[in-house]
Amino acid sequence: MAKKKDYYKLLGVKKSSDAKEIKKAYRRLARKYHPDVNPGDKAAEEKFKEIQEAYDVLSDEKKRKVFDKFGYYDDNLDINSPFGAGAGAGTGGFDFSGFSWDTGTTSESSTSSSGGSSFRDIFSDLFGSGGGSTGTKTQAEPAKPLPKKGRDIEIPLALSFEESVTGLTTNLTVNRSEQCSRCQGAGDMGGPLVVCTTCNGSGQVQKTGGRLQFSQPCQDCEGTGRRRQPCSLCKGKGVTPKKEQVKVRIPAGVDTGSRVRIPKKGHGGRLGAPPGDLYIVTNVGKHKYFKRKGNNIYVTVPITISEAALGAKIEVPTVDGKTRLKIPPGTQSGQKIRLREKGVPSLRNKNVRGDQFVEVKITLPKVISEETKELLRQFDKINSENPRKVMGLE
Questions:
Q1: What pLDDT score does 224 carry?
Q2: 95 Cβ partners below 8 Å, 6+ apart?
Q3: Terminal-residue alpha carbon distance, the chain
Q4: Which of 290, 289, 292 is nearest to 258 (CA)?
Q5: Assuming Cys at both sites, which of 104, 125, 138, 236 could form a disulfide with 187, CB separation 3.0 to 4.6 Å?
Q6: Residues 6 or more apart from 319 whose CB is under 8 A from it?
Q7: Domain over 7-127 is classified CATH 2.60.40.1120
Q8: What class, spelled out in words, does domain 153-284 have in CATH?
Q9: CA–CA separation, 240 vs 127, rounded Å?
Q10: What pairs with residue 43 in β-bridges?
Q11: How much is the pLDDT for 304?
């Protein structure tokens, strides 16, 4: 007796489900477990075979009646017999006709014996295969090409920290395409239809995915098997390659990942359609002492004990050059002082600019003389306040 399998459970449907629900469930599972989606996965391949077996039976009205009566399907079962006469032979009606695995051959188109849906039809729905007969397509007239906008181009560009803040103008070499001047983007020069050399007039091309071989409509002739003679200049593509020097202006304020658009400098369109756009994607290098957060800039500057205690005016770097910064008396190490509008210009509003924050760090001299040590001892006697005690740490 053939091995019993619950086909309804395999497809995840109820016994009362109609043909439409069964087909929908099969399509969903076939997409999930198809060998093309799971290359080299034996478990997925076996699952794919099981759901195909289940669909082959449940999509056929007569086979389904046999399965519902006996709880399994066998070609030799007799639905009119209460005992299932002839049961025990057969393989469960599993049929992979219409395609091959890795034998390199394709069998005749299959249809279940009682008019049920064939796997070839479902396969065509799932993967766009023209698995059925192409006799009617080879007689069809190829559709006239429509205007088509050109594709966009992305080019990465490395910038220094300073260039990202100030902006720059540069020339870039762009490998793009433009509409063919001979056929005006049509891809052919008109004239009579000839046999498509890509598919040899069949309208179909063979594709291989994993261990599965199947057919797809030929893109060059749109599955008709015929096309007009391709343009000799663009070879039927409708566009020709072009290397062009493009002037690019990078605005002030860009950061890593910013996209700068240069209109109509992408690949050329077809039949008068506009070209695509060129996008420059910026990658900003690190600075040796500046750090950027949003539109603000941060820098750490060392100061002496006396500058911190008595106050001072010191020079600090900014992206615009050096500027004078006032250190208030009693400044603590780690304190931040703001320099307004010394940060990065805003990309959204060129009149708005971030700030620069200067973090001061009090440093001791590398070599302390005996005279300096004595002065520090006297300073400690006069200023005997314990900062740890003030903070409640002692």
A1: 85
A2: 56, 110, 112, 119
A3: 89
A4: 292
A5: 236
A6: 161, 162, 165, 166, 290, 297, 342, 343, 344, 356
A7: no
A8: mainly beta
A9: 31
A10: none
A11: 93
Residue 104 CA, distance from chain mean position: 33
**Residue 23, amino acid:** K
| CA 197 to chain CA mean position, Å | 33
- Residue 194: both structure tokens together: 């000839």
Domain locations along the chain: 7-127, 153-284, 294-382
Is pTM beyond 0.70 here? no
Q: Of 34-43, 117-126, 173-182, which has the strongest mean pLDDT?
A: 173-182
CATH fourth-level superfamily of 294-382? Urease metallochaperone UreE, N-terminal domain (2.60.260.20)
Q: Which residues pair with 245 in a beta bridge?
A: 173
269-321 pLDDT, tens digit each: 988 899 999 999 999 999 999 999 999 999 999 999 999 999 999 999 999 99
Contacts of 285 (CB under 8 A, 6+ apart): 158, 159, 160, 161
User: Which of 341, 251, 344 is closest to 294 using CA atoms?
Assistant: 344
pLDDT at residue 389 in the model: 74
Whole-number pLDDT of residue 299: 97
Q: Give the length of the chain.
A: 394
How does DSSP assign 127-152, residue by residue?
H----S--TTGGGSPPPPP--BPPPP
Q: Do 120 and 231 contact (CB within 8 A), yes or no?
A: no
DSSP string, 14-67: -TT--HHHHHHHHHHHHHHH-TTTSTT-HHHHHHHHHHHHHHHHHTSHHHHHHH
Structure tokens at 189: 């020069």
Query: Where is pLDDT greater, at 187 or 256?
Result: 256
Are both 153-284 and 294-382 of the same fold?
yes
Residue 121 pLDDT grade (very low, low, confident, very high; cuts 50, 70, 90): low
Which residues, including other chains, have CB under 8 Å from residue 249's CB and lie 6 or more apart?
167, 168, 169, 260
Segment 338-349 mean pLDDT: 95
Nearest to 34 by CA among 26, 25, 44, 43: 44
